[in-house]
Design brief:
Number of domains of chain B: 2
Number of strands of chain B: 2
Oligomer: heterodimer
CATH superfamily of the largest domain in chain A: P-loop containing nucleotide triphosphate hydrolases
Distance between the termini of chain B: 50 Å
Shape of chain A: globular
CATH architecture of the largest domain in chain A: 3-Layer(aba) Sandwich
Number of domains of chain A: 2
Strand content of chain B: under 5%
Order of helices and strands of chain A: HEEEHEEHEHHHHEHEHEEHHH
Largest interface: A-B, 43 and 33 residues
Order of helices and strands of chain B: HHHHHHHEHHEHHHHHHHH
Distance between the termini of chain A: 42 Å
Number of helices of chain B: 17
Shape of chain B: globular
CATH class of the largest domain in chain A: Alpha Beta
């Protein structure tokens, strides 16, 4: 390395957009590029469901202290990939070169709960609020190392009473931040979909994670709430947390992510900064489709010339593809 | 009127009986499994049966290797330990392969395992085992009861609770009893009124009011239907008092457990295991602890269940498990007092059905048929309960609205 890599000391500066940009300028814009200070490293993870390969990631690194977005069309394997690295699923390639580590700790054989304990906490695409428990109970379950969760200590209240108070104070603080404090004693099942997303995120934060993995945090959330969720995610990064999230909304991705990883058909096809990766031809082909710039709802397109022109384009493309295939043979 | 009084008396003696308390303890264990952790254990009777076998056989045979004589106090203590030990091992054997799977599998495995335990108990093929368990005939209570009854400080003779009862007022005239019942029903109505928060009481005053009214209701009911028992006999006051004390202690232990962060983790597992994993909780360990603790309560219940009876495998089979479930759902799953209330109402209700059909449908059903008829009614009640009041008597209806 020619220049000193950013270390823990410089990470505090990552709340400054320019610092984040300069940090990632030297990173190659290729799939599996090496990062200056990766918190998560993944090698050779393959997951097959029968004959279908859902995930086949050769190498991927996630930079510490940044917001990394994981995008890709439906069925690209994003959620499966999440499940694999968080221990909710086992790679087919386990024991055959599959290897992933978080913050220097190898996670190859670690259970989902141990992964969470090591500081990598996830949320779910379909929110998993614990419905028949109150909001505050949901929150307090998120805290780690609770003495009272030991069966024998749980019977003796003085052992855990003090810690319980501390946890509750912390939960109150987080609930306040996520505007859920007035719902504190309501059942989580009575919350709206968006509030559940907030609750799940707040609950994940109770464990003071080093990295938080959000699976479609904006799905089904109204635009006003989206804004505040985005604010929350950015402030998490500014506090030094690493965020990896799956999202379909390109505006959201452009708006908050410092780095974008694009998956298609189980592979990582491109990586780059949000503004440049969208113009990567691999991304356009694989993810957005060749005609992503064409507004199909535009009446102007319904003229004969426009349709002919489109037909020509398609024919040309087909011809090109044939040539390409021919060349391969 | 005398017929009604007779039915009421037998209902009361069943409601306060030691076996009701014993089943209540097993239901407390089942409540930890099913109510709090969501483990569908359909083999609670096996935990009870194992507890009973361990208890009875250890007392009957002693443990020669440790120098424990049969039928001594040491054998009694050892019996309790062995019975709980068996239930502990049984819980581990059931839990290790099944708790990693989805909930339904535990149901299948527990019901089969309970049947296996019962069939092993009643088998006659293996001489040594038959000598210990007595096969389908079981172990008569007289072979293991002595060290327990020897502990009784109550002496011989009979006692009636309450000593002062309806017969002492105007010679038990009909109007005395009618007034008494009106008062009794009024007190129960008052409890419901307070419990629903309509009386404007909350927190500690509400709890105190409910507790006070409950004691009052118990006194009035015992006044109207006094219970007469031997002090120390087979079904006497000593075993009754011990059984209800153990039930009370169990309730308090469970109260402490479920109000702690451990209890919160149990309910978290019931709601969503994956969410709990994502929060760094060891779901398998939590479920295993719940299975063991609930099973130990089952074993203790089993020991008390056989003290006034015999250890008979067929009387502790599937139907006992379903009694436990009916009592649990009746009282309210995931409530503290539900198991006790449910067991009392269940057993009193069963006796009421048997009594009514014996008294008023005498030509229609024989007494054996009316006992079977009571089981049919129990089944129907269980179904109606699940359909119309799934939260039970004490449950919070709000919780059920979010059944996902």
């Amino acid at each position: 390395m020619s220049e000193p890599g950013p270390t823990t000391a410089t990470r505090g500066d990552l709340s400054d957009p320019a610092a984040r940009k300069s940090l990632m300028t030297d990173v190659e814009r290729v799939p599996g590029a090496a990062k200056p200070d990766p918190i998560l490293k993944v090698d050779n993870i393959v997951r097959q469901f029968g004959g279908m390969t859902a995930v086949d990631v050769g190498h991927l690194e996630v930079q510490r202290g940044l917001i990394t977005a994981l995008i890709g069309p439906n069925g690209a394997g994003k959620t499966t990939f999440f499940n694999l690295i968080t221990g909710f699923d086992r790679p087919t390639s386990a024991g055959q070169g599959a290897h992933w580590s978080f913050d220097g700790r190898t996670l190859d054989k670690t259970s989902a709960s141990a992964v969470a304990k090591s500081g990598m906490v996830r949320t779910f695409q379909l929110t998993k609020a614990l419905s028949r428990m109150t909001v505050i109970e949901n929150m307090m379950l998120g805290a780690q190392n609770q003495a009272g969760e030991n069966l024998f200590k749980s019977l003796i209240r003085p052992i855990w009473h003090h810690q319980e108070k501390e946890i509750e104070a912390k939960a109150d603080e987080l609930l306040d931040r996520f505007k859920l404090l007035e719902k504190k004693h309501d059942y989580a099942g009575s919350l709206s979909g968006g509030q559940r997303k907030l609750l799940e995120m707040a609950r994940a934060l109770m464990s003071d994670p080093k990295m938080i993995m959000l699976d479609e945090p904006m799905a089904g959330v109204n635009p006003a709430l989206t804004q505040s969720l985005l604010g929350h995610i950015q402030s998490l990064r500014d506090e030094g947390m690493t965020v990896l999230f799956v999202e379909h909304d390109m505006h959201v991705v452009r708006h908050i992510s410092d780095w974008v990883v694009v998956m298609a058909e189980g592979r990582v096809v491109a990586e780059g900064a949000a503004d440049t990766v969208m113009s990567d031809p691999a991304v356009i082909d694989a993810y957005l489709g060749a005609h992503h710039d064409t507004d199909l709802g535009d009446d102007a397109l319904l003229t004969d010339e426009a349709i002919e022109q489109l037909a020509e384009e398609v024919a040309e493309e087909a011809h090109r593809d044939e040539e390409k295939d021919g060349g391969k043979r | 009127m005398d017929e009604i009084q007779q039915i009421l008396n037998s209902m009361m003696s069943s409601a306060t009986g030691p076996q009701t308390a014993a089943v209540a303890i097993a239901v407390i264990g089942l409540n930890i499994h099913f109510g709090y952790t969501g483990l569908l254990n359909i083999g609670q009777s096996a935990f009870m049966l194992l507890g009973a076998y361990g208890f009875a056989i250890t007392i009957k045979e002693g443990i020669p290797a440790l120098g424990i004589e049969p039928l001594g106090f040491a054998a009694l203590v050892a019996g309790v330990i062995v019975g709980m030990g068996l239930a502990f091992i049984f819980a581990l054997i059931l839990g290790v392969p099944t708790l990693k799977l989805r909930g339904d599998y535990l149901a299948i495995v527990t019901i089969s395992a309970a049947e296996i335990v019962r069939y092993i108990g009643r088998s006659v093929g293996y001489e040594t085992l038959f000598g210990l368990t007595g096969g389908a005939q079981g172990i008569p209570g007289s072979q293991y009861r002595a060290p327990f009854t020897d502990l009784s400080p109550l002496g011989n003779g009979n006692s009636t609770l309450l000593e002062f009862n309806y017969t002492d007022v105007a010679d038990g005239a009909v109007w005395v009893r009618l007034v008494g019942w009106v008062i009794g029903i009024a007190i129960i109505a008052a409890i419901v009124h307070v419990a629903r928060g309509r009386a404007g009481l909350t927190g500690t005053p509400k709890r105190v009011a409910i507790a006070g009214l409950s004691v009052l209701a118990l006194v009035v009911l015992l006044f109207l239907a006094p219970v007469n028992n031997q002090n120390t006999g087979v079904n006497g006051w000593f075993v009754t008092i011990v059984a209800w004390c153990v039930a009370a202690i169990s309730t308090v232990v469970v109260l402490f457990l479920v109000k702690s962060p451990w209890g919160r983790a149990l309910r978290g597992v019931r709601e969503d295991e994956d969410a709990m994993r994502s929060l760094g909780k060891n779901v398998f360990a939590i479920k295993m602890q719940a299975l063991v603790i609930g099973g130990l309560f089952g074993a203790v219940g089993g020991m008390l269940y056989v003290l006034p009876a015999t250890v008979q495998p067929d009387s502790m089979g599937r139907s006992l498990t379903f009694f436990c479930y009916t009592a649990l759902l009746l009282g309210g799953a995931a409530t503290i007092w539900g198991p006790i209330l449910g067991s009392i109402i269940f057993f009193a209700g069963r006796i009421m059905i048997i009594g009514i059909s014996n008294t008023y449908f005498d030509g229609f059903m024989s007494s054996q048929e009316s006992s079977q008829f009571a089981f049919i009614v129990v089944g129907v009640v269980l179904m109606l309960l699940v359909i119309f009041r799934p939260q039970g008597i004490l449950g919070d209806k709000r919780e059920l609205r979010f059944n996902v």
